[in-house]
Amino acid sequence: MTTAIILTGLGTYAMRAFFIFALARYSFPPIMLRALEYVAPAVMGALVISMMTNTKGELTAGWAESLGLLGAAVVAKWTGNHIFALLSGMGTFWIIRWLI
Amino acid sequence: MKNALSTPILRGSLDALPLFIPAIPFAFVFGVVVANAGIPSWLGWSSSPIIFGGAIQVTLFTLLGEGASVAAAVSAALIVGARHLFYSLTLAPRFQDQPAWFRWVGSYVLIDQVFVLSQINRIEEPGIFRRYYLAAGFTFWALWMTFTALGILLGPAIPASWGFEFAAPVLFVSLMMAASDRGDKLIAAAAAMGVALTFSHLPHRAAILVAVAISVSLMLLIRRRPA
Asked: Contact B189/A86, CB-based, under 8 Å?
């Protein structure tokens, strides 16, 4: 158990540090810098889907979840405030779940 | 007060706070996973400072609890965490004008939320970036240490039927919108969602890795000419 925790800790740290150290003196070509701009939105989108699918790969989002996420996206775009987006997303989710 | 609020350290901490909200129900889920795995509380909690990654910790203890071998559980946990390689690559240029100690310490707190904060708030000045990044990272760190301890001590304090776990995808949708400050970035996010759905049958959230690789490559093909 202790071995597993330490190995996972070392592996996780190694992944986080890998390119930061490996490319510390690398001069990034402009095309690569442009590509990296898409990493954050792409990872966030993929993370959302991974949270809404089960281990069999089936989508677990019903009406309440889908509209909750949509509500959060609209409020986030509109206000740029994560607390408002959380409140509207959870609020929509709870209300629709209660109605259905 | 205005001066205090405009310091990068305070701003980093304050930006981290709302992003931690969905991690609270997750910390209680973690507590249940540790209890079910049948390991001593302190040993389960030690994974918080040693690994510092919620999904990775939960995967590791879930599999070990189910009787998987150390090799199988560790490799599965590391595949779940492999998206951190993308974060490391994306932040590498920003870490070039930083002192060596920051590369060591900054890598330790490079979690999903700290990464996305560093991408949303593009800070050019290295000293300000460093203070902001560390403040956000260690605010998260202190909260995660506290709440995973509470999760282990209190067990399932938040009933699953309330659906508080749904706060995690809600927050990440909000972060996705904040990270998509241009139309092409929103297309990248939508493309990644589509690919992730197509590959969602892959084990250990490997669909995330495929989705990011395909989405970023696709965007490069579409926008070959400089903007």
From this structure: no
